[in-house]
């Protein structure tokens, strides 16, 4: 193949790939199907944190206005008792592990069973060759001894299984003790901004009491009420733009429809939708209002 032919081949290949990508792309209408005024920015992630157990606050590590990462500690409760319980659970687990590893009883019972079997076999063989070499009572005694040895072996194996189960129980008890200790720290489930910590060091808090609030300003949501005539044209994953003004400055961001309510307001004849968008610059804040521009085609 000549250089010119190679160039033509590569050009056709690029043209083919471009054409396929263009055909596969969603047909996004550039003309809006609706412009909804008074669309409001709301929080997508608004987390109110509560403590699982009662206790005394010993430290507050994040105050209102501080940013916190996922799993970051905000409040710590007293934990002396829980640390001690974890230590006891750890020690009990170590004892159970040592007992579970001990197989001496099985080894001894197995050896006794094999030995008694050999003694009985020798006696039976001798009695078969010489009828009066071993008495019937001796054979009976050796049979009982062998049966007892087999029973001891089975009991030893059963004890080993029980010790293994006990070890598993102790592992779970240690896990529960560790979880109980971990729960003495109230952690944030999201990256965000701490806005409320209505407790202070030394204060007693009850189980279920709200002790912190964390919001995420980088992922926000727009709530709007759309007229009934657009009901059949809106679906999840459609694109939308939000436009608002701060003084003389106009800010416009793009988002994706995440929820279209199936319920129509009987009074206003409209329905609710949610549009999620990224707010990396954090120049849009919850509570702002603006216009929501809706488009018709869904993203793949």
How would you describe what is shown here?
The chain is an alpha+beta fold. It has three domains: 26-45 and 216-298, Elongation Factor Tu (Ef-tu), domain 3; 47-75 and 186-215, OB fold (Dihydrolipoamide Acetyltransferase, E2P); 81-182. It contains four helices and 14 strands. The strands form three sheets. The chain has a six-stranded antiparallel β-barrel. A four-stranded antiparallel β-sheet has the order 2-9-7-4, with no helix packed on it. Strands 6-5-3-8 form a four-stranded antiparallel β-sheet, with no helix packed on it. The radius of gyration is 38 Å and the shape is elongated.
Distance between the termini: 40 Å
> Strand order of the main beta sheet, please?
1-10-13-12-11-14
Overall shape: it is: elongated
Q: And the CATH topology of the largest domain?
A: Elongation Factor Tu (Ef-tu), domain 3
CATH fourth-tier homologous superfamily of the largest domain: Efflux pump adaptor protein, beta barrel domain
Count of extended strands: 14
Helix and strand content put the structural class at alpha+beta
Order of helices and strands: HEEEEEHHHEEEEEEEEE
What amount of the residues lies in strands? Answer: 25-35%
The total number of structural domains is 3
Give a short account of the largest sheet. 6 strands, antiparallel, barrel
* Mean pLDDT over the residues: 87
Helix content: 25-40%
> Compute the gyration radius: what is it?
38 Å
